């Protein structure tokens, strides 16, 4: 069953979509378009380990003719560099998602920072909403993807400016497989996304992000269209 609501379910007309270039935000972006909203995509360069997702985001937005801003906040890299996602000298943990093996991928306070900037953008252009792709699979590892964080941040977004902004996380209690199911129902082509923690030519297939993605495709009975490294131990399930 699709998780998509009726098209006219929201009173907002314009939204800022935090768009990383990954499959979750790719689905959120298209879901907002399906709702009939005017979408402004917003991406952030905070000194990630690689720029493959940002390059993918640029290409998708250009193909859709969407306004897209990539904000350079690399000056803050020294504040958040104690993470495998921001420090290329750290070994990237492999294996399935879990607090025991992927804690090294937590970027301190990332979503609060990005959401604050997105809310500012919304107020600046008169957008009523900010969308981002937090989902149920992230709850075990990332505190700033949990419902209590989103609820509190949504409250702050309503009082931080004279113009209240709604924080919208449509997949907050859904799984990665649920998100993919919605995207497939919309006819989305996930070869136009990048999920791998590594920035190589081909996805590695063994990092936690790749494994979660592959599991979502397997749960939906379809093959991931993204190319994976031939020496991947995971492959296409």
UniProtKB/TrEMBL annotation:
<comment type="pathway">
    <text>Purine metabolism; 7-cyano-7-deazaguanine biosynthesis.</text>
</comment>
<keyword id="KW-0671">Queuosine biosynthesis</keyword>
<feature type="binding site">
    <location>
        <position position="204"/>
    </location>
    <ligand>
        <name>Zn(2+)</name>
    </ligand>
</feature>
<keyword id="KW-0862">Zinc</keyword>
<feature type="binding site">
    <location>
        <position position="196"/>
    </location>
    <ligand>
        <name>Zn(2+)</name>
    </ligand>
</feature>
<comment type="similarity">
    <text>Belongs to the QueC family.</text>
</comment>
<protein>
    <recommendedName>
        <fullName>7-cyano-7-deazaguanine synthase</fullName>
        <ecNumber>6.3.4.20</ecNumber>
    </recommendedName>
</protein>
<dbReference type="InterPro" id="IPR014729">
    <property type="entry name" value="Rossmann-like_a/b/a_fold"/>
</dbReference>
<comment type="function">
    <text>Catalyzes the ATP-dependent conversion of 7-carboxy-7-deazaguanine (CDG) to 7-cyano-7-deazaguanine (preQ(0)).</text>
</comment>
<feature type="binding site">
    <location>
        <begin position="19"/>
        <end position="29"/>
    </location>
    <ligand>
        <name>ATP</name>
    </ligand>
</feature>
<dbReference type="Pfam" id="PF06508">
    <property type="entry name" value="QueC"/>
</dbReference>
<feature type="binding site">
    <location>
        <position position="210"/>
    </location>
    <ligand>
        <name>Zn(2+)</name>
    </ligand>
</feature>
<keyword id="KW-0067">ATP-binding</keyword>
<keyword id="KW-0436">Ligase</keyword>
<dbReference type="InterPro" id="IPR018317">
    <property type="entry name" value="QueC"/>
</dbReference>
<feature type="binding site">
    <location>
        <position position="207"/>
    </location>
    <ligand>
        <name>Zn(2+)</name>
    </ligand>
</feature>
<keyword id="KW-0547">Nucleotide-binding</keyword>
<keyword id="KW-0479">Metal-binding</keyword>
